[in-house]
UniProtKB/TrEMBL annotation:
Keyword Cell cycle: no
Source superkingdom: Bacteria
Keywords: Coiled coil, Signal
Protein name: Outer membrane protein
PANTHER family in the record: CHAPERONE PROTEIN SKP
Record GO biological process: protein stabilization
Organism: Chryseobacterium shigense
Coiled-coil spans in chain: 55-111
Family: Belongs to the Skp family.
Secretion signal, residue range per the UniProt entry: 1-20
Single GO MF annotation: unfolded protein binding
One GO cellular component term: cytosol
Length: 167
């Protein structure tokens, strides 16, 4: 019985190794390729500019709110309870406006990223698919993936960059 188990284990190992050898594997440095693409560089610059503008707008509103808060705090002892209550309501409304601006900016940023990076991702995926078919690769894995434990397949990074016309 023990010999049968050992024989079965050896057969499974031989079949597994021969199946693995039959598959043509390659890796690609996705981040390296993406960062080399001019479209990605332009999209990154556009998004940073957009984000900086939104942050400046929110900061301006927040600074104005801080100035008002300081002014109202200093003047509070000299004002009536009704005036202070109205000022408190105004400050709460201003805080809500700032929070809404931040939420809207986050949503706008996500939408801008989706629009900017969608075509880039499609172009990269199309290039990877074309390289895989041209070179007979059955699998192309991201060389930077944490799930990748062993890598001995060919590296398709140069071929994908060539397909995209980048160095």
């Amino acid at each position: 019985m023990k010999k049968l188990s050992v024989l079965f284990a050896v057969v499974v190992m031989v079949v597994s190794v021969s199946m693995a050898k039959a598959q043509k594997l390659a890796t690609v440095d996705l981040m390296g390729v993406l960062n080399a693409m001019p479209e990605k560089k332009k999209a990154d610059t556009d998004i940073k500019t957009f984000l900086d503008a939104k942050q400046a707008e929110i900061k301006k509103k927040a600074d104005a709110g801080q100035a008002k808060l300081k002014q109202y705090t200093e003047e509070a002892p000299k004002k009536t309870a009704d005036e202070n209550k109205a000022r408190e309501t105004e400050l709460q409304k201003l805080q809500e406006e700032i929070a809404q601006m931040q939420d809207k900016a986050q949503k706008d940023l996500q939408a801008k990223q989706d629009v900017a990076f969608g075509p880039i991702e499609k172009k990269l995926n199309d290039a990877i698919e074309k390289v895989a078919k041209a070179n007979g690769y059955e699998f192309i894995m991201d060389a930077n993936s944490a799930a990748l434990v062993y890598k001995s397949g060919a590296d398709a990074t140069a071929a994908v960059k060539k397909e995209l016309g980048i160095n």
